[in-house]
Amino acid sequence: MIIVLKKDATQEVIDHVVDKIKGTGLAVHISKGKERTIIGAIGDEALLSAIPMEALPGVESVMPILKPYKLVSKEFRKEGTIIDVEGVKIGDTTLQVIAGPCSVENKDSLIGCAMSVKSSGANILRGGAFKPRTSPYDFQGLGVEGLKLLAEAKKATGLPIISELMDPRDTEVFCEYVDIVQIGARNMQNFRLLTEVGKIRKPVLLKRGLAATLKEFLMSAEYIAAQGNSNIILCERGIRTYETATRNTLDLSAVPVLKEETHLPIFVDPSHAVGRWNLVAPLAKAAVAVGADGLMIEVHPDPENALCDGAQSLKPSKFARLMEEVKKVALAVGREF
User: By CB atoms within 10 Å of each CB, which of 69, 154, 252, 286 scores lowest?
Assistant: First the structure.
């Protein structure tokens, strides 16, 4: 249930309404917009039936949330969520780009790649320290050492960093080194992991699962929000279909559909979607055209010898060319870049 407060509602009024809701045993989530404060009462709404909520001082209206996902729905928050990551505003009118290698391999390669993508227009550096691989014999990442190298790359370039968390036991060390915690497609419904990252205040980039519906995707985001962390970025990265021409099928229709359903910012990862570097550029531009708030693109200085996903990685020169093309599309659809 949503309790909309009047424009002039004081902190005393807010606290009074919150106390009333908590007294019924329901969870409370507060969203302060530009004009009004909205309080979400999450749980069995029947417990509120004995309280005349609309009669409480400062309450303007009371409405049920009809969607199964409550806190991430547009019913709960009409305004789009804007997440500030080290001064990079995600979710506003500026198109943001995350770029870097699939996995952290060594210091020189990482820092060189970071400097290159920054000069081309990327705002955030990506790099996998812990890698979920289909085969147990493939390169699994450098672990904590990889996180330390990412921190060195941040120091050298000023770029905020993002890396994938796979195990709840690593949450503390991730909070020490990274600016955005990534939850990969394979872990989209790892509810224990989602609950843990919901308890931190680091922004979380949540990737859509391999065969997840958009409802399931949003319900996973709800797990994070339900623990108090509303700094969530959704990332469409392709789903598994019968088509074999590409690694996955990039569902670009997900972007406008999600824009209608949620206030969270939405990114698109064309690299993992297609698995082929020569198809990344057209899909990246298409993602911007349909309304994505940002892109996540793999870049490697030597894709032929990359330890992970070289086939889908752009060389720095190709990434620079793509950024010039993306800028034109972004400006055409009213985005800043």
Answer: 286
Residue range(s) in the chain whose domain bears CATH number 3.30.70.1140? 2-63
Cite the residue boundaries of each domain of the chain with CATH code 3.20.20.70: 83-332
Instruction: Tell me the C-alpha to C-alpha distance, in Å, between residue 217 and each of 187, 194, 277, 287.
Output: 11, 12, 26, 18
Q: Are 167 and 197 in contact (CB under 8 A)?
A: no
Average pLDDT of the chain, as a whole number:
92
Distance CA 130, CA 116 (A): 23
Going from the C-alpha of 326 to that of each of 295, 296, 320, the distances in angstroms are 10, 13, 10
pLDDT interval class at 116 (50, 70, 90): very high
What are the tens digits of pLDDT across the range 139-183? 777 899 999 999 999 999 999 999 999 999 999 999 999 999 999
Tokens representing 214?
């958009």
Coil vs helix vs strand at 322: helix
Give the pLDDT confidence score for residue 137 in this predicted structure.
66
Residue 105's nearest CA partner among 311, 328, 316, 306 is: 306
What the block records as the tokens of 141 is 């990442």
Q: What is the pLDDT of residues 41-52, one digit of tens each?
A: 887 777 777 788
The top-level CATH class assigned to 2-63 is alpha beta
Q: Is 194 buried (19+), middle (13-18) or exposed (0-12) by CB count in 10 A?
A: buried
Please say whether the beta carbons of 262 and 77 come within 8 A: no
**Which CATH architecture is the domain 83-332 placed in?**
Alpha-Beta Barrel (3.20)
Parallel, antiparallel, or unpaired for β 204-207 and 59-63? unpaired
More confident residue, 296 or 201: 296
Residues 6+ apart with CB under 8 A from 176: 147
> Is the pTM higher than 0.85?
yes
pLDDT reported for residue 31: 82
